[in-house]
Design a protein that fits this description.
The structure holds 2 protein chains of 2 kinds. Chain A has helices spanning about 1-5, 10-45, 60-65, 75-85, 150-165, 170-175, 210-220, 240-250, 255-300, 300-310, 315-355, 360-390; strands spanning about 50-55, 90-95, 95, 100-110, 110-115, 120, 145-150, 180-185, 185-200, 205, 230-235, 255. By secondary structure, chain A is α+β, with helices and mostly antiparallel strands. Chain A has 2 domains: about 1-45 and about 265-390, no CATH class; about 100-210, no CATH class. Chain A has a 5-stranded mixed β-sheet with strand order 5-4-8-9-7. The radius of gyration of chain A is 32 Å and the shape is elongated. By secondary structure, chain B is of the alpha/beta class. Chain B has a single domain (about 10-225), classed as Rossmann fold (3-Layer(aba) Sandwich), CATH 3.40.50. Chain B is globular, with a radius of gyration of 17 Å. Classes of the chains: A alpha+beta, B alpha/beta. The interface of A and B includes residues 2, 304, 313, 315 and 389 of A.
Chain lengths: ~400, ~220
């Protein structure tokens, strides 16, 4: 009956205008949030490249001529500590290079190939292959090796093509048996090895940390205090412009292309943020329409509200109609915006597919939409209660 | 500290009350303004005065509808100014009934809905009883008409039925019979009196001379 009484002055046009404006604003906001989280999830799933950079010092003339001390090319502990303190750094891993002689030989297609080699190791959790195949057991003696994916491309399209050698797939190359000769410190040993994986993150030939420790003890030159010449850094925010500034200031080089992809992601995130802000502004203006419309409604009904309280109705009983009105409209707007976002999402998901499959983010869209509209409803209802208190006096 | 009138409202005391608008005027002799006056439950009061002497204001002050007065009003020794919204709402649902002079019916609702709007809040009367009262007051044929389509006399009777749709300790009637003929005056008088007697409640009536015909002489005349 109260509903029948208070419904009288409801302006359908004002509420329709609010619903439309809020729907547009909220949809834009949700689309940008969803787009942003898609881009983010791709970047995280995309070999994890974008979040890692490898740092080294530039090779100068003195070092090139072999006169400089090798320490000039290394990072000091102070430099590493300074790096760890940077806000864009999540964690830092040090490359350890082998202090002994290595050569590798392989036999396939009836020919033997042999080459001098180098190994580096880095903390296992920076290596982008699964940890089960990344273990060295001295009892078994087989060394897992990680090779840059680029090496395979060089071999397949450069070396193999020009020498009439068979081209290799990733699966085949993992089956090729290798023999590694290790020497130094008066010891010499030949050990079996296999290519455990191909990395697009690491631009080196890497072996597990525990193998490096074991081998350094046997063959090493007893100089364990050597400083690392290369560092791998996991970035908290790959697009952060502060990264480049810091690198320039300290005259340090980074593996370039991963940071480019970081910048692309950063720009995409920036676009999403700008679009999101526009959506938020539209939604905020829509909320103003809602507040004005309800304010007018309560003003027009102020006599009725006063008479109802005179009969003994509480403010909350009178306000129930307005509360329900706000909640129903906002529910419809929320559901509408979620549907619009889900319908539009294939528009950007399809092109993004080529970079990787984004994780489903329906849950986060639902949570965001509910949170935003929950806050809007709360503000509107509080404002409404205040107006009713004023009208009932 | 906020209190509410819990059980029965046994008295309404006016301590040095005067409407703000009169505060700078010489109001002459009055039993109520600027004195200590107590309405006691179980007694009936007829407040007579010329127009403009503040009768409706008094009703609004007692009903806690307006507070533009100096001095204090106490319900069972609880200062009216200390009541919060829910205590006021409770006061209007269980202790005080009001027939405002301007009636304040909702024009877009039917006569019956106007009554039910109040009764739904209190759940005090059965639908049967409400229809009986419409019958008794001779407006049964107008029961489903929008209130705005009724004559003022008919509206007055609908508003009286509405005022009776609740338990009360005091019923305040602001010029209740200004538009009623003699027969209806008597019927209304008996209806209100019976309702009040059934609850040992008080009747407070204002009048400009056209008195509600109560079936009793036990009425205290008060000069405003």
């Amino acid at each position: 009956m109260i509903t029948k009484l208070l419904r009288k002055n409801v302006s359908r046009w004002q509420l329709a205008a609010y619903s439309a404006a809020c729907l547009v604003g909220l949809s834009i906001l949700l689309v940008s949030i969803s787009f942003y989280s898609d881009v983010r999830s791709i970047r995280n799933s995309d070999n994890g490249n974008a979040d890692f950079i490898v740092l080294s010092k530039p090779v100068n003339m003195i070092a090139a001529l072999g006169y400089g001390s090798p320490d000039a090319m290394s990072f000091t502990s102070d430099e590493i500590d300074d790096l760890r303190r940077q806000p864009w750094v999540k964690r830092v891993g040090e490359f350890t290079s082998a202090g002994f002689n290595i050569s590798a030989s392989v036999e396939f297609a009836g020919r033997g190939l042999s080459t001098a080699l180098f190994f580096e190791s880095l903390p296992d959790d920076f290596v982008d292959i699964d940890s089960a195949s990344w273990q060295f057991d001295p009892a078994i003696g087989e060394i897992p090796i990680l090779v840059p994916r680029d090496y395979l491309a060089l071999y397949n399209f450069g070396f193999a093509a020009s020498r009439g050698m068979p081209q290799l797939s990733e699966d085949i190359i993992k089956q090729v048996p290798l023999k590694i000769a290790l020497g130094g410190n008066g010891h010499y040993e030949i050990m079996p090895a296999r290519i455990a994986g191909l990395s697009s993150r690491l631009n080196t030939i890497a072996v597990p940390e525990n193998f490096m420790r074991w081998a350094s003890e046997r063959f090493g030159d007893n100089n364990p205090s050597r400083q690392p010449a290369r560092l791998i850094v996991e970035l908290a925010n790959p697009g952060d412009p502060a990264i480049k500034t810091w690198l320039d200031e300290n005259d340090i080089e980074s593996s370039a292309d991963s940071s480019t992809s970081g910048q692309t992601a950063y720009i995409a995130a920036l676009c999403a943020a700008v679009v999101g802000i526009i959506g938020a502004v539209i939604a905020a203006l829509a909320v103003m329409i809602l507040l004005l419309s309800i304010f007018l409604l309560i003003q027009k009904n102020s006599d009725k509200i006063r008479d109802l309280t005179l009969l003994g109705y509480s403010r909350s009983q009178v306000g129930k109609f307005y509360r329900n009105l706000i909640l129903i409209i906002n529910c419809i707007v929320t559901i509408g915006a979620i549907i619009i976002t889900l319908v539009l999402s294939p528009l950007w998901k399809a092109p993004l597919e080529s970079f990787g499959t984004p994780e489903s983010n329906i849950a986060s869209i639902l949570i965001w939409a509910t949170m935003i509209m929950g806050a809007v409803s709360l503000v509107a209802i509080l404002a409404c209660n205040k107006m009713i208190r004023k009208a009932s006096r | 500290m906020i209190k509410s009138v819990t059980d029965r409202l046994t008295n309404i005391r006016l301590d040095n009350v005067i409407p703000d608008v009169f505060s700078n005027e010489d109001i002459g002799y009055s039993q109520i303004w600027l004195s200590d006056f107590c309405f006691e439950r179980g007694r009936h009061y007829m407040i007579e005065a010329a127009s403009g002497s503040g009768k409706s204001s008094l009703c609004s002050f007692i009903y806690h509808n307006r507070s533009d007065y100096r001095g204090n009003i106490f319900y069972n020794d609880i200062n009216a100014r200390s009541l919060d919204a829910s205590a006021i709402s409770d006061l209007r649902c269980r202790h005080l009934a009001l027939l405002p002079q301007e009636l304040r019916l909702f024009g877009e609702l039917t006569a019956l809905d106007n009554v039910k709007l109040k009764n739904r809040l209190t759940g005090y009367l059965s639908d049967e009883k409400i229809k009986d009262m419409f019958d008794l007051l001779g407006i049964a044929d107008r029961i489903n008409h929008p209130a705005s389509m009724l004559s003022i006399g008919q509206m007055q009777r609908v508003a009286i039925i509405r005022a009776l749709c609740q338990p009360f300790d005091f019923i305040i009637l602001d010029e209740p019979v200004s538009h009623l003929d003699e027969t209806n005056n008597r019927i209304v008088g008996k209806l209100i009196y019976d309702a009040a007697m059934a609850q040992s409640a008080s009747i407070i009536i204002t009048s400009v001379g056209n008195r509600l015909a109560l079936p009793t002489d036990d009425v205290i005349n008060v000069r405003l």
